[in-house]
Specification:
single chain; 337 residues; TIM Barrel; eight-stranded parallel sheet; two-stranded antiparallel ribbon; 10 helices; globular
Amino acid sequence: MTKGPLLVISVDCECDKSADWTSARPASFLSITEAIPTILQPLLGRRGLSGTYLLSSEVLEDDASCAALSQMEGTHELGAHLHGDYIGPGRTHVDFAGSLTSEYQCDYHDELQRAKLESLTDMFTSRFGYGPTSFRAGRFGANPYTLRALEELGYLVDSSVLPGHFEHTACTVIDYRRAPNVPYVPVGPGHRSAGVASIVEVPVSVSHGCVARFLLRNYHSTSPGRIFQRLTRGTVLRPTWNTSAVLIAAARRLVGQGGPVINVMFHSMELVPGASPYAEDQAGVRGIVGSLEGFLDWWIAEGYSGCTLSEARPLALGLQGEPATSSGGDNGPRGQV
């Protein structure tokens, strides 16, 4: 295995959106058919890096999108991404144009969540001739049952955890405050026992300062106030929100803490003018791409390399193939989704 930290570029791939996050009307997929093949994948390829593209169901329904992804050059991985509003059973938006995804899969009862994941997996397999092995829940809305269902469906890696994140949904709470910032084998409810799960978690990378890490480890109120949220706000490694200098500083901190994987995430439509709130025009797209390019150039200059989400799995299982869990330290205790 390559020595040193590895970089994962994981992209949530959906239909084009608008300034208020509603899906474009009429529906369009320029980020899939044009931005990824002509901007992002070549940008990564020139640096010897691989993209992991996590496909939502509306992308899988679009013939042109699937054709573009099937014909795309360069090393990459295609995985799955669930927004349950857009897939059956119980599909909320049959015509998703102009709609807004609002459901969390962790709010579904187990049978419904499993059925939607199975539909997504079957759709992917039908399109590409093989099953996906990497996954991210829309809105980071996974729960312990998600992991069990993913294991049963043949997935190897989940990336639904955003360390430090806390959110009330309609029916439950998403609580990633104690989640590690390193790949780990999930333990707790929904798994047989520590170290025997076949799926591993590769969380999105978030850099927290010393005070934030202390508070996240030790304060677990179910209603954290604004002051707590402000003090524990970290830097998500997302070029949409941060300059290359900020991304580099955050990555340096995580690497210095021993992080073996840096998982950078963003959405495909953020590379298309007017298709998200973050890039209203071409200048906005250039800003996002510039932030990513500057960060990638630094990464390569440091002598580091990259991998796909599924290729990061051995780091959680151990170099000798033995089960391993995160032991905590600066990243907190063994994590659960």
